[in-house]
Design brief:
This protein is α/β, with parallel strands linked by helices. The protein has helices spanning 4-7, 72-97, 99-111, 127-152, 161-168, 173-176, 179-182, 216-223; strands at residues 22-36, 42-56, 65-68, 154-158, 185-189, 192-197, 201-205.
């Protein structure tokens, strides 16, 4: 996207990186169980999710929010509602921040006579001009969609979430994030979810981008 916009005469602003993110952390309790899988293995406890803490760096939403709910479905619904409100706030700020680029894209469409109406681009001009206009419409549409997706997708970050937090809710992942409808990319290594992207969220584990053995305490100290 950063390389594609200048091709269409759209001036890319210096600060092109997405500035906002949300963070989350699950807490679980150990519940006693008595399940025997074999003569050599017996499960005695399991992790049961009881709460989630959320926060973001969006100016109006910097206050930490903790949800405590023993019912897993209700807990995840409330978590998703909170994240959705955060994502919508970030999206509005991104459109304000890059409103100049939105106007530039509209100017490119006007320059090439690109209409939103189906079939209107085929009217007027020579055959070669109509073909060029149709091709440009496809290209601009792809760039416009990519820019919209970039503004809309909020990074949601955990620490060691790929190995612990997300596996806690792996049986609910598809349902809570509507992966059958909006999944764009799921990167999984063994039982580790390194990236999960939907229309609204990009769920990442920051520990996947640090040197091996980096603890949470050393991460906070290093990056203040």
């Amino acid at each position: 996207l950063h390389d594609a916009l200048p091709i269409f005469g759209v001036h890319v602003e210096e600060e092109m990186f997405y500035p906002y993110f949300a963070v989350f952390d699950f807490e679980a309790m150990l519940e006693d169980v008595n399940e025997g899988n074999s003569a050599r293995l017996r499960w005695v406890q399991k992790h049961v999710l009881v709460s989630v803490s959320l926060c973001s760096n969006i100016p109006t939403l910097t206050r930490p929010h903790c949800i405590v709910e023993p019912d897993l479905d209700k807990l995840l619904d409330r978590m998703l509602n909170c994240l959705t409100a955060t994502q919508e706030a970030a999206y509005r700020l991104m459109l304000e921040k890059w409103s100049g680029m939105v106007h530039q894209i509209e100017a490119v469409k006007e320059k090439w006579g690109i209409s939103e109406e189906e079939g209107e681009d085929e009217v007027g001009g020579t055959e070669s001009q109509r073909r060029a206009r149709k091709k440009m419409k496809t290209l601009v549409s792809d760039v416009e969609r990519a820019f919209e997706d970039y503004c809309k997708c909020l990074p949601v970050i955990g620490f060691n979430s790929a190995r612990y937090d997300l596996p806690l809710i792996k049986s609910k992942l598809a349902k809570i994030f509507h992966l059958n409808q909006s999944s764009k990319m799921v990167v999984k290594k063994s039982n580790i979810y390194t990236c999960l992207t939907t229309d609204r969220f990009k769920i990442l584990d920051v520990s996947q981008y640090l040197a091996p053995g980096h603890s949470y305490a050393s991460f906070l100290k290093s990056f203040q």
